[in-house]
Amino acid sequence: MEPRNTEQPLILLVDDDARSARLLERLLEEDGFRVELATDGALAIARLARHPIPDILVTDFRMPHADGIAVARYARSLRPALPLFLLTGYPELVARLGRGLEPAAVVHTKPVDYMALSAELRASVDAALTGSAQPSSPSPSPA
């Protein structure tokens, strides 16, 4: 098992909408997370191939080169219990295509309720530090 930085968890944020991604990146950093940004699925997969593997994956669903489900599946091939957060305007499609991701990804419908996302990210970090299961919500959060 690789060493983990318990002070500032590393989030890989994947979104092809640069403006939204930079805003979310700034908010997460203000909340004490370290954030690396990838602007499409292929770049995210390339980043996941390097160490350290992020503590959390937050990814958009619809992106060029590889969608969020492909990125999530690759991430889970490297770290099976990695907390996954999918951001989407297509929650029904994500629910159908994301079957088999265990533990389930947490799905947030766009526009994202940042307070809810932030609380769930923090709960995932706390759960990882205490060794309990990742909080999951198989259904989309309210918009």
Task: Describe the structure using short key phrases.
5 strands; 5-stranded parallel β-sheet; single chain; 143 residues; alpha/beta; globular; disordered C terminus
Overview of the molecule:
This protein is an alpha/beta fold. Helices cover 39% and strands 17% of the residues. It has helices at 18-30, 41-48, 68-78, 91-97, 114-130; strands spanning 10-14, 34-38, 56-60, 84-88, 106-109. The protein has a five-stranded parallel beta sheet, with helices on both faces. Helix 2 (41-48) runs parallel beside helix 3. It is globular. It starts with 9 loop residues before the first strand and ends in a 13-residue tail after the last helix. Residues 1-5 and 134-143 have low confidence and may be disordered.
Order of SSEs: EHEHEHEHEH
* Low-pLDDT residue intervals, each spanning 5 or more residues: 1-5, 134-143
* Nearest-integer average pLDDT: 86
How many distinct helices?
Answer: 5
- Calculate Rg over CA atoms: 14 Å
State the helical fraction. Answer: 25-40%
Outline of the structure:
By secondary structure, the protein is an alpha/beta fold. It contains five helices and five strands.
SSE topology:
Layout: E1 10-14, H1 18-30, E2 34-38, H2 41-48, E3 56-60, H3 68-78, E4 84-88, H4 91-97, E5 106-109, H5 114-130
Parallel strand pairs: 1-2, 1-3, 3-4, 4-5
Helix pairs in contact: 2-3
